[in-house]
Design goal:
The protein has 225 residues and is of the alpha/beta class. It contains 7 helices and 7 strands, in the order αβαβαβαααβαβββ. Strand 2 (71-76), helix 3 and strand 3 (100-102) form a beta-alpha-beta unit.
């Protein structure tokens, strides 16, 4: 299927290319980062941070040009910026009445968190980028689950909630920290401050001949079970 070309963001263009290869042929679910938000100040939880105007626009474009009337189910972190991203995607897709299903595996606290208080204090002290990169490197930090354990929790969630209709796309909206840790574990992807997972960027899990695969930035890898 060819998706509408009217996209301005490089991360959306990359996701479009991946979808064009897969849509209609495989059952799938996309683990998607929320749209652009305002800056989270160090020491703040950022739970109620709003989307920027550009974030609202990008999520509506995503719905209009990639998911138009093709969304099966949409899952989201309970955090406001993820829910707002989902609502705007549904507006763009002209599926405003589709319910958004909240799940704490996708955030607040998320699949990688063992102790919300300790983990939250670590984020507040060290900041998101330092915390995420250190967690990926060490595969464990105070308040976190082991990287492999958390990644497997997300893997099972995505498999459980994959679209049952090849012509529908399921979405799971989450956060950079969660998505990057998942990608780093299964794809051995090397992230850095200059190579960050962008807003509205996604990784696709799809099913082929009873096996599961991940597709990220035009790279496909079989998912170890």
């Amino acid at each position: 299927m060819k998706f509408n070309q009217n996209l301005e963001d490089n991360s959306l263009i990359t996701l479009k290319k991946d979808l064009e290869d897969l849509y209609g042929n495989y059952h799938m679910i996309i683990l998607l980062r929320h749209a652009q938000r305002f800056e989270i100040l160090k020491g703040s939880s950022g739970s109620n941070i709003e989307l920027t105007d550009n974030g609202i626009k990008a999520s509506k474009l995503l719905g209009k040009h990639l998911f138009y009337q093709n969304i099966g189910h949409i899952y989201s972190s309970p955090i406001k910026r993820c829910l707002d991203t989902g609502r705007n995607i549904l507006i763009g897709a002209e599926q405003k009445t589709l319910p958004i299903i909240e799940d704490v595996i996708l955030g607040n606290p998320g699949c990688f968190v063992a102790d919300s208080k300790i983990c939250g204090e670590y984020f507040a002290t060290h900041g998101t980028k330092e915390t995420v990169l250190e967690y990926i490197r060490k595969q464990n930090l105070p308040g976190f689950r082991n990287l492999e354990e958390g990644a497997n929790i997300m893997k099972l969630f995505l498999i459980k909630n994959i679209s049952l209709n090849k012509n529908k796309i399921n979405l799971a909206i989450s956060h950079d920290a969660i998505i990057m840790a998942f990608i780093a574990h299964f794809l051995h992807w090397e992230f850095s401050e200059d190579n960050w997972h962008n807003y509205c960027e996604g990784i696709i899990l799809f099913k082929k001949n009873n096996e599961f695969f991940l597709r990220y930035k035009e790279i496909t890898k079989k998912l170890d079970m």
